[in-house]
Amino acid sequence: MSEDFQNEAKCFGITPSTAFVRQPEGNGLAERAIRSLKEQLFWVRHFEMVEGLRAALAAFAAKYSASWLRQRHGYKTPNQIKDEQKALEAKAVSVVNMAA
After folding, report:
1. Which residue from 90, 91, 69, 93 is spatially nearest to 81, judged by alpha carbons?
2. In whole angstroms, what is the distance from residue 25 CA to residue 22 CA?
3. CA 76/CA 83 separation, integer angstroms
4. pLDDT tier for residue 97 given thresholds of 50, 70 and 90
5. CB 35 within 8 Å of CB 45
6. Which of 54, 79, 90, 95 is the most exposed place for a label (fewest CB within 10 A)?
7. DSSP category for residue 41
8. In angstroms, rounded to a whole number, what is the distance separating the alpha carbons of residues 32 and 65?
9. What is the DSSP code string of 28-75?
10. What is the rounded distance in angstroms from the CA atom of residue 41 to the CA atom of residue 45?
11. pTM over 0.70
């Protein structure tokens, strides 16, 4: 059964990645995200067409990124975290001095 799953994942272009040493909580985080998606979307709505599901997933992702606070990053939303990272990248690029 695992081999069937692995082959199906390869068919969709999904490549497996291993967890980092001494950091198994990565699996727990992924499982929690999937559970939240199930509880807040799949178990409360019925989708007749794939397009409806696709739109609902996009709306769920937008709501998650704009409103859910991440403890790991000082109780900031994913959008706030991305904005801070982009600002740091822009600053790093503008500060680099090259010797001629």
Report:
1. 69
2. 9
3. 11
4. low
5. no
6. 95
7. I
8. 16
9. HHHHHHHHHHIIIIITT---SSHHHHHHHHHHHHHHHHHH--BGGGTS
10. 6
11. no
